[in-house]
Amino acid sequence: MIIEHRGISPTIDPGAYVASTATVVGDVRISAGARILHGAVLTSENGTITIGANTVIMENALVRARANHDVTIGDSVMVGPHAHVNGAVIDDEAFIATGASLFPGSHIEAGAEVRINGVVQINTRLRAGDVVPIGWVAVGNPAQLFSPDRHDEIWAIQSELDFTGTVYGTAAGTSMREIMREQSEFYGAHRDDQPAP
Question: What global pTM score does this model have?
Answer without folding.
Answer: 0.90
